[in-house]
Amino acid sequence: MLAALGGAFWAGAMTYRHREAIARLWSSDRDRGALESPGSYRRDTELLRGAFKAKIIDRQLFAPCQTPGALHAAIDRMSFPASAFAGAYEKIRISNQELSGGICRIDYQVDDRSYSSYAYFLKVAEAYAKDRVAVLIIPGTGLNQSTEIVKGNPENYQSNIVGAFDGKADVYVYVKPNEDFLAIHNGDEKIREEFFVRYLLNKGGSYSAKYLVDTLSFSKFLKSAYSKLIVVGLSQGGEAALLNALQSTPDLTVVASGFSVLNNELDWADCQQIIIPGLRQYYSNEKIRDMIGSSRTQYLFTYGQQELGAYKVEAEEQATCKYLAGLANVSCAVHGKGHVYDLGSVKDFLSRHQWRGRI
Question: Is the dihedral of CA 56, 59, 61, 66 positive or negative?
């Protein structure tokens, strides 16, 4: 009797503990199939149940993951020690770079461990010309956003940014792990965040740290190969652009709806956003202000009046811009749009700082 009650209690407790995950799995017709009656028992089927969700693009670098072991190895490729993020830029050692089929790959090491990072490459002139400008675009949240930016999809919230550079810079659009052609997939769909975010954090790693250090590897390479570097991002990409610039000190950085001092009090975000344990210890508001003030980088922060939440408050009250007031290398712009790039503000910023290399 006690055993039966214990079993019932345990089942109920586990159901309660995972109720949100179960609810998400039931949130669409496709997901409901993941929880249908399992039929005959197959170990691999159960371990992979619900693992894959979002559609992948046709071009993929990695082979499908058909077993739990293959999936585990692929997830581990996305890990970077969270404690090693602060100061990672100085430790990065570039071992190889390769351009092929419109994709740039950087191989690098940090603390004797090897990694690779990838970006779409939009070539304007001969690559790696020392008197030209490179632009590193870090995508914001969303499915396959790097591909959408490169395609210039007018319905996508960040796809207009390439046009800000008027075809006068080599543009690198960073590709996050598990996105675009880097999907961890089963041949049709890619793995969902619930299968790797918690796992990596619990083992001391961080998906966010990995992708941010990837962008730092691009910054380090591009600074050595071009005369000027501009780092740009919107939304989560804007936060990433700021965190990148604090370490890599590019010439110019555009942080579009990506940073608010208000987030130190209330921070509304889900597991798709940047999560690095201890991040606010390394980059408190005070530390960020000091680092910006002592940097050679020129910063632009933008906010839209049609946004929501903290960025709406920023557009109305300019809390961050007031906090950074007095820093000669900081510009702010408020526009009448929503959570998008305002090309007018960006182009004005670029023009004021004479961003062009030799045309």
Answer: positive
Q: Are the C-beta atoms of 175 and 183 separated by less than 8 Å? A: no
CB 340 within 8 A of CB 158: yes
Yes or no: say if 200 and 75 are a contact pair by the CB < 8 Å rule.
yes
**List of residues 6+ apart from 159 with CB closer than 8 A:** 148, 149, 151, 152, 153
Altogether, the residues listed in the chain come to a count of 359
- Spatial distance between the Cα atoms of 79 and 105, rounded to a whole number of angstroms: 18
Residue located via tokens 């039966």 = 4
In this structure, the dihedral spanned by the alpha carbons of residues 63, 69, 74 and 79, taken in order and rounded to 10 degrees, is 180
Residues 175-202 as b/e (b if ≥16 CB within 10 A, e otherwise) read: bbbbbbbbbbbbeeebbbebbbbebbbe
The two tokens of residue 14 are 């586990």
Backbone angles phi, psi at 120, to 5 degrees: -70, 145
List the alpha helices (DSSP H) in the chain. 2-17, 19-25, 29-32, 43-47, 68-76, 88-91, 145-151, 197-202, 207-225, 236-248, 279-282, 285-293, 310-317, 319-323, 343-352
Which domains are present in the chain? 82-352 (3.40.50.1820)
Sign of the CA dihedral running 350, 353, 355, 359? positive
* pLDDT of the chain, 359 residues: tens digit per residue: 334 434 443 444 433 344 444 444 444 444 544 555 567 889 998 999 999 999 999 999 999 999 999 999 999 999 999 999 999 999 999 999 999 989 999 999 999 999 999 999 987 655 566 678 999 999 999 999 999 999 998 899 999 999 898 778 999 999 999 999 999 999 999 999 999 999 999 999 999 999 999 999 999 999 999 999 999 999 999 999 999 999 999 999 999 999 999 988 877 777 788 999 999 888 999 999 999 999 999 999 999 999 999 999 999 999 999 999 999 999 999 999 999 999 999 999 999 997 765 43
Q: Are 55 and 251 in contact (CB under 8 A)?
A: no
How deeply is 62 buried, as exposed, middle or buried, from its count of CB atoms within 10 A (0-12, 13-18, 19+)?
middle
Q: What is the pTM of this model?
A: 0.88
Q: Are 217 and 291 in contact (CB under 8 A)?
A: no
